[in-house]
Design brief:
- With 363 residues, the chain is an alpha/beta fold.
- 45% of the residues lie in helices and 15% in strands.
- The chain contains 16 helices and 13 strands.
- The longest helix has 19 residues.
- The two termini are 24 Å apart.
Length: 363
């Protein structure tokens, strides 16, 4: 685990635990030493990331020794590399929770360029290992019904869905006058996956004059970065190669639409996921969203019409959606306000924190 995971761990879960009377320590794999962030103690294992083999065969045992020194009542991790550590903690009688944020091991198919038969063997072995480990743990947290389904098929006990929802800035407001003063700009931020289909989105924008595209984040793979940067529209893209979480508000302030598209047909959650935090952060910022036309988001937008649904692989639908939001500013603004209302009422960490604490206390 790295120190760049403050957003989920320190500002949401650790804060909720502290408010419920727990002492919280956040352990990271680096050599930077100890510090405090928002009263959460951050300690180092003293192990740098290094090679994958080092992370698998050396770091877990050093991590385990360090965790034994902390001697906590509950341990939680989201790193598949630390499943062996989870088992060792169970052997010494500790309570262990695994946070399965992504659809491992099946997302490996998206991340590997190896021949299919090799990928199949790797995924099958990963699935066997994960099934064995998760069935031994006290609780597993997932972000979507798709991941929950295969965990239940595996016989994993005590599986709970916890969406990736933001903490609401209750002091924030966006007036219609301020919204219409902004240039027409679409924002996409965060990890730039192949399933975000940037090439399709840029095909759509290339046919719309006077609209800006703001892209902030790290490309998942070098080959995909090379593919996207060779696109004819790339020279018009405002690209930031990585950012810090505190920069997000400034990004939102110069944007009018948020692109939160993902090709879920290529994931273990084909119906969509509530684990895409950029979706809810964009709504919280009052931006209308363009999102994938899948059942999870169909349900969300039927209750809170805060954006437009499109086929992520259809550039004409994307083009029409962007044009509509640009040409109907008042309606676009209202969508953004409905989205913010939805987050405040239902999709904030405040609304989920009691469920999370309940999982801890139930074990």
């Amino acid at each position: 685990m790295g120190r760049d995971n403050y957003e989920v761990i320190v500002y949401r879960r650790a804060r909720s635990l502290r408010e419920s009377g727990y002492d919280v320590t956040f352990m990271v794999n680096d050599t930077k030493g100890e510090e405090y962030i928002e009263d959460t103690k951050v300690v180092s294992t003293g192990v740098s990331s290094g090679s994958y083999l080092r992370r698998i065969f050396i770091a877990p045992f050093k991590t385990f020794r360090k965790l034994r020194q902390i001697n906590a009542d509950y341990y939680q991790t989201y790193s598949v590399d630390l499943l062996l550590v989870c088992l060792l903690l169970k052997i010494i009688g500790k309570k262990v929770i695994f946070d399965l944020r992504e659809g491992h091991p099946y997302t490996y198919y998206l991340k590997s360029k190896k021949p299919h038969w090799i990928n199949y063997c790797i995924v099958s072995l990963m699935a066997i290992w994960m099934k064995f480990c998760l069935r031994k743990l006290d609780a597993t947290i997932v972000t979507s019904e798709g991941i929950e389904r295969y965990c239940l098929r595996w016989g994993v006990p005590n599986v709970s869905i916890i969406g990736n929802f933001p903490v609401v800035n209750k002091d924030y407001s966006l007036s219609y006058e301020d919204y219409i003063k902004r240039e027409d700009r679409v924002i996409y931020y965060g990890s730039i996956y192949t399933i975000s289909r940037q090439e399709v989105f840029m095909d759509a924008l290339s046919r719309i004059p006077n609209v800006h595209y703001f892209l902030a984040g790290k490309f998942e793979y070098q080959y995909y970065k090379e593919q996207i940067t060779q696109h004819s529209y790339w020279e018009k893209v405002e690209f930031i190669d990585g950012f810090q979480i505190h920069e997000l508000p400034s990004f939102f302030k110069k944007s009018t639409i948020s692109n939160v598209l993902r090709d879920f047909s290529k994931t273990s959650s084909p119906n969509g996921s509530m684990g895409i935090i950029k979706l809810f952060e964009s709504m919280e910022a009052g931006l209308p969203i363009i999102c994938s036309n899948v059942p999870v988001y169909q349900k969300l937008l039927s209750e809170y019409p805060c954006g437009l649904l499109v086929d992520v692989n259809d550039s004409k639908q994307i083009e029409d959606a962007v044009r509509y939001l640009i040409e109907h500013k008042e309606e676009a603004y209202k969508m953004g306000q409905i989205g913010r209302k939805a987050v405040i009422e239902k999709y904030s960490w405040d609304a989920l924190s009691s469920k999370y604490i309940g999982i801890i206390e139930s074990i």
